[in-house]
From TrEMBL:
Keywords: Membrane, Transmembrane, Transmembrane helix. The chain crosses the membrane at residues 21-36. It comes from the Bacteria. This is Zn-finger containing protein. The lineage of its organism: Bacteria, Bacillati, Bacillota, Erysipelotrichia, Erysipelotrichales. The keyword Transmembrane helix applies.
Amino acid sequence: MKDKLIQFMMGRYGTDTLNKHILYTVLVLIVLNLLLNNRMLYFLSYALIAVDLFRTFSKNVTARSAENAKYEEFMRPVFDQVKVMQKNFSDKDHKYFVCKNCHKMVRVPKGKGNIEVTCPRCGHHFDARS
């Protein structure tokens, strides 16, 4: 049985970041539907499941990879901001910022007040409060 599943999935796209986020959205919609009992949420969740299954079992790997790359590029500011928030929460000695020019994460010492931060990668200057 396991060999048949492996053989079936050979040449298929599988999961990626976009698929995972679609599934998280489906879970949120299902919970909202349980609370609100809305038919639109019900159909939307099933439509997203169908899209997710289509993407997972698709043999057109290049198209799915291109879709995922566009999604990740579109969501990059959100992903960067989440990373910065996680780092700022866990590191008590430093504050983290993202350069708006090249998207490099920059670390500065905490407690220095208003400072001018210079990105080490591109040299872009921006004001920040540490």
